[in-house]
Amino acid sequence: MDLQQVKDRVYYRLREDLISQEIPPGAPLKEIPLSERFGVSKTPIREALARLESDGLVEIAPYRGARAKWYTARDFDQLYEARFVIQAECLQRITENPTSPVAEELRLNVLRSKELLAAEKYDDLVAEIDRFDDILFSAIDNDVLREVIDRIATHFRRIGKHTMTEARFVSSVNEHDQIVKAARDGNQKRARDRLLKHSDHTKSDLLAMLQSGQAS
Fold first, then answer.
1. Is 58 helix (H, G, I), strand (E, B) or coil?
2. How large is the greatest C-alpha to C-alpha distance in the chain, in angstroms?
3. What whole-number distance in Å separates Cα of residue 110 and Cα of residue 131?
4. What pTM, to 2 d.p., does this model score?
5. The CATH number of the domain where 12 resides is what?
6. What is d(CA 212, CA 120) in angstroms, rounded to the nearest whole number?
7. Same domain for 17 and 53?
8. Is DNA-binding among the key words of this record (predicted)?
9. For residue 213, what pLDDT is reported?
10. Quick one: CA dihedral 71, 69, 161, 5, positive or negative?
């Protein structure tokens, strides 16, 4: 394994641990223990932490070192706004062509989600709900926007660890259903309104859980 492969291995493993919160928010990320864990020198660790800081997953402070970053209220506002703006553009393209393969894939996604919800197969349902966004984003074929989408999706994978309750499962499936029905009807205004309500509801649910101490 060459040096670049070593650096990438360390980066992607730490990135996944941060997203899954195996490394919890606020946890210190010290170079020596990480070097021992991965069996590498401090250089790949230092470079991985710098990349993760650029990703917005790690914060590095002088004399204090690196730690797993969490989100401020402003971070949440910006992430939800950015996701909504891009999703709204995707949705507009779908409503302009409501018989497109993407529209059909969204319909099938909602159908599968309803079946999984009824069967109380929540682990599979989480994956299907997450896939809704992936399908929606696929309406855009733009490499520059794809990089932005991937960055946003990374943060929402992490945030999603705190938003999935049984009540949110039900709400998400119903809201996705309403979004898709409006899009397949070609009703841009209603589809956008349903999308905005869904975004606002998921954000409100997350903030309520954080404030009540159910998430940290």
1. strand
2. 58
3. 10
4. 0.86
5. 1.10.10.10
6. 26
7. yes
8. yes
9. 60
10. positive
- The residue behind tokens 């641990």 is 17
Out of 19, 53, 68, a domain closes at 68
Query: Where does residue 1 rank: exposed (0-12), middle (13-18), buried (19+ CB within 10 A)?
Result: exposed
Cα–Cα distance for residue pair 172/200, rounded to 1 Å: 12
Among 18, 41, 68, the domain boundary falls at 68
Tell me the per-residue pLDDT of 14-55, one tens digit each, with 9 for 90 and over: 999 999 999 999 999 999 999 999 999 999 999 999 999 999
Q: Which domain holds residue 129?
A: 73-212
Same domain? 163 vs 206: yes
Sheet of 28-29: strand order equals 28-29, 65-68, 58-61
CB contact set of 28 (below 8 Å; sequence gap of 6+): 65, 66, 67
d(CA 19, CA 32): 22
Burial track 143-155 (b if 16+ CB lie within 10 A, e otherwise): eeeeeebeebbbb
